[in-house]
Write a structure and sequence with these properties.
By secondary structure, this protein is of the alpha/beta class. It has 10 helices and 8 strands.
Length: 306
């Protein structure tokens, strides 16, 4: 009897992932869209405007590297007409689900149209590229264009609205890119060192001229070892770095160990503040939007290092 119920449950799961038809839009005519990380949900809302109904799976404080889809998530994905996800193995535990869903509906990785020659290596996490593309605003502009083009193709009747919304958002992103670059330049060059729990900020460092050091690496699935802690501690002591940063979606235990280790060697460091890396802030706050998240991070970094 147990085996029978197990088989039925497994069959239902497979059905949800690969065989049913997308649920049609409600009578209000909005396109049902499901996204993974909050940054994508915000971007789709900006471009889709009144024509889309967006459901985001991952809320504030959620780590996408470790995220496993629940049965409720499968239903949200199954009910969507379009699915947008980051790609580049960010949502590594959901790859098979996306592949199954793509057999019956539009499933788009917003990173797909980014020139691969501009991406950072992700070799240390056994994937080809670093997935944290949103930390270079220019990459996020390319992702925005991908969302725009998908919506135009899916709903040509409202194509002009999608193009206008996207252009307005892209203008904001161009201004944001310039703003970030200018503010990071205000930090004395010797102090431009950003130390965080994991190496999510590599694109940010490359784009805006700040050295980035992550205790773990690109993925939070790997844990920092004793040597990682001591090597980072010694670097910070030697270079008299004033502050390190915690992340909203990553436990701070390892960073605290670095701080205590530096203190034992006679170098006092502070927690410069909490940054948003793999997840945005709470919905309804400025940090609950992509632009607000980036501005928050820059203000915290500049305030601690300047």
């Amino acid at each position: 009897m147990f085996l029978a119920f197990t088989f039925i449950g497994f069959a239902a799961f497979i059905s949800a992932c690969g065989s049913s038809e997308p649920t049609p839009s409600d009578s209000d005519g909005k396109i049902k869209i499901t996204t993974t990380i909050g940054m994508i949900a915000d971007m789709v809302k900006q471009v889709g405007g009144e024509h889309v109904e967006v459901t985001g799976l991952m809320k504030a404080g959620v780590d996408p590297h470790l995220y496993k889809a629940s049965q409720g998530d499968i239903e949200k994905l199954d009910n969507a007409e379009i699915i947008f996800y980051n790609g580049l193995h960010l949502e590594g535990k959901m790859v098979e689900i996306f592949e199954n869903m793509a057999k019956k509906k539009t499933v788009i990785a917003v990173s797909d149209k980014i020139d691969r020659s501009t991406l950072r290596s992700g070799a240390e996490m056994e994937t080809e590229y670093d997935p944290h593309i949103w930390f270079d605003v220019r990459h996020w502009m390319t992702a925005t264009e991908s969302v725009r083009d998908t919506l135009v193709e899916k709903d040509p009747e409202n194509a002009d609205d999608y193009r206008n919304n996207a252009e307005n958002y892209l203008k904001q992103l161009r201004l944001l890119h310039d703003e970030v670059a200018e503010k990071i330049k205000s930090i004395p060059e010797a102090s431009r060192v950003l130390v965080t729990a994991h190496d999510a900020f590599g694109y940010f460092g490359d784009a805006y001229g700040i050295k980035v050091m992550g205790l773990q690496g690109i993925s939070t699935a790997s844990e920092a070892g004793t040597k990682d802690v001591t090597d980072l501690r010694d670097y910070l002591v030697e270079n008299k770095i004033k502050a390190v940063f915690i992340e909203s979606s990553v436990p701070r235990k390892a960073i605290d160990a670095v701080i205590q280790g530096a203190k034992a060697k006679g170098h006092e460091m502070n927690i410069g503040g909490e940054l948003f890396s793999d997840a945005m802030g709470e919905e309804g706050t400025p940090e609950g939007t992509y632009i607000g998240m980036v501005r928050h991070n820059v203000e915290i970094i500049v305030g601690a290092l300047k």
